[in-house]
What does this fold into?
Amino acid sequence: MITYPNAKINLGLNIVEKRPDGYHNLETVFYPINLQDALEVNDLEGEGEYTLKISGTPIEGEPDNNLVVKAYRLLKKDFPNMGSINIHMYKHIPTGAGLGGGSADAAFMLKLLNEKFKLNLSTEKLEEYAAILGADCAFFIQNKPVFASGIGNIFEEINLSLKGYYLVLVKPDIFVSTKDAFANIIPMKPNHSLKEIIRMPVETWRATMKNDFEDSVFKKFPEIAAIKDKLYDMGAIYASMSGSGSSVFGIFREQVEHVDEVFSGCFCRQRALE
It folds into this structure.
């Protein structure tokens, strides 16, 4: 069986307060985009619990620490009769980009295993399992636009469609650490809630919708800021960093020509928004 986990972008991201546990509460909008990995699972013939083959974009780390393996073991603990599996994952979504690629892989793995082994898990139960694997994993179970709060794990459905617009996504070869992202963050409530902002025309977002991580990240990595500026120069009606970076996206009314040439040396993709 095969499935195609997709990425997401953050429309706005406000760090609203620091929690007693050291984490930060935030407010953001998750929006799914048509940038996909491929994840295939087949029955494993022979000995062993699982095998994992990863192709495409290289991923560092041990197989046991990969989220798709953690998803399998999480379900296996409650459903010990699940068979051994062979996992093949083709990575196309860039890692360390603020696009949720690893979380998407984990959530889609849960959905695939639920179908393959006929576990009959409800959407709500799948979301519970996904939340164990990561704060934003549960978003990818229903995979619809949401307003997210808490540590990015509390979701509220929203009525938002960007169908008809085009997305240009650019990921430079830069890794942004959590320390770098939070370097200049002063948590505060925004003047306007994202829930209000997204009801307004996209043309107004540039003046009102903000990603708080940009202050810290752009200061340390001016080349990321330059990508955002370039997207506006090319005619984007809204541009922003996604999550804590390092990817930056622009929303356009029409398809843009020669984006690969403009952003040569970067991962760059253009997609119609749904």
